[in-house]
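Bumping my old thread because nobody answered last time. Still need a sequence for this structure:
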């Protein structure tokens, strides 16, 4: 009416009457299935977590203890057989720990190469012991005195053997490099009869090691 043109109904923009619906997450959350539990007996306490873990680690098949003992016994027998052969042949690998090493071998060879009074001590003492029953009191006293002198001589000999072995080892391996216990080892071997020594002698009389 005042110069304005009335807009027709078709020209009026239609207002958004309804908003677009929001996207609905249709993914259903999967519920965690409850763990199956074994039925517990009445009056029995529920096992703890450590007990359940220990039960799971337990092997299904028990070890055969009898077979294990037999295998262990067989291994020990084989080890002892090798050690006995080493005592006869002097093989270093299977000798006992107390007899291993080049210095112990040197001490054995030195003692076995000499003729000592100590290796006859046991035999002489047995002879004097049996002979004393058939002697008079005077003769028995003389034999006893002689036995004391014999033991004193053996003691001096053992000290001399130990010192000789130490000096030879120091000359061969250097001062301060001698193993501990070699002197006592050589003295105890000198006190044994040659046939009863273990490991058995590998040298003859007079064949001293260089």
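Sorry it took so long. Here it is:
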């Amino acid at each position: 009416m005042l110069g304005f043109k009335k807009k027709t109904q078709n020209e009026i923009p239609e207002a958004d009457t309804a908003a677009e619906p929001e996207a609905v997450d249709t993914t259903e959350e999967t519920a965690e299935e409850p763990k199956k539990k074994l039925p517990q007996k009445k009056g029995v306490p529920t096992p703890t977590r450590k007990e359940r873990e220990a039960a799971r680690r337990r092997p299904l098949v028990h070890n055969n203890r009898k077979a294990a003992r037999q295998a262990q016994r067989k291994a020990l027998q084989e080890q002892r057989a090798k050690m006995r052969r080493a005592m006869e042949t002097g093989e270093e690998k299977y000798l006992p720990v107390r007899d291993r090493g080049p210095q112990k071998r040197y001490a054995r060879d030195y003692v076995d190469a000499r003729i000592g009074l100590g290796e006859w001590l046991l035999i002489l003492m047995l002879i004097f012991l049996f002979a004393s029953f058939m002697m008079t009191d005077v003769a028995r006293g003389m034999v006893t005195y002689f036995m004391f002198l014999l033991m004193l001589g053996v003691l001096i000999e053992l000290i001399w053997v130990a010192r000789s072995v130490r000096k030879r080892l120091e000359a061969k391996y250097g001062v301060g490099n001698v193993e501990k216990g070699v002197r006592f080892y050589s003295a105890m071997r000198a006190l044994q009869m040659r046939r009863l020594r273990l490991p058995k002698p590998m040298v003859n009389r007079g064949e001293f090691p260089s």
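Residues 137-173 form the longest helix (37 residues). Let me know if any region looks off to you.
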